[in-house]
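Each record in this resource describes a single protein on a pair of labelled lines. The shape at a given residue is found from the number at the same position. The record below illustrates this layout:

***
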Amino acid sequence: MLKQRSSREIQELLQVASAGDESALAELFAHYKDQLRRIVAFRLDSRLKGRVDPSDILQEAFIDLLKRLPEFPEKNMSFFVWLRLVTNERVLACHREHLNTQKRDPRREQRIQPAYSGASSVLLAAHLMGNFSSVAGKAIQAEQNAKLQAALDSMDAIDREVIALRIFEGLTNGEAAEVLELTKQTTSKRFIRAIRRLREILSTIPGFNE
């Protein structure tokens, strides 16, 4: 079982890693790996699940981190938020490689879900529908999914993103505020408002299990 490190230990490892110690960076990456895997699982386009292993994305992200570590001191962000950024950029690269290069079929073309520029209604609906159970079959579920997407589209983009960050990625309020470049107070207020709006939306979807 991976040892949970204290904030002090994390800071000490960060200082060593910033000096170019790859083993320290590996320890830091291992500390955050479970949460990074959760983020990849959320942001990865559903069409790639089963085709792309999140572990491969994390491995490639770690290689990127090794190359880009010298630039971290210049970033005005916490280490974890930087880890998240680099990892999500790797998810986006995966989308480009596997989806943008496919031959386009107008009958089947779908919008690619953004990796870090904001949670689309398509992305949120796909994960929220994981809580939806119906005996009516796929046709009814597809109809409910379309209704859910349309309702989510009515939400402010930042409100959708704060839900994604706090609920699906598991970020703290402070981390979400850093990602969104908002104050902690503003982020907290937006999260409360977004959750209230989300509950209203889900209440309009028959049979939806909150």
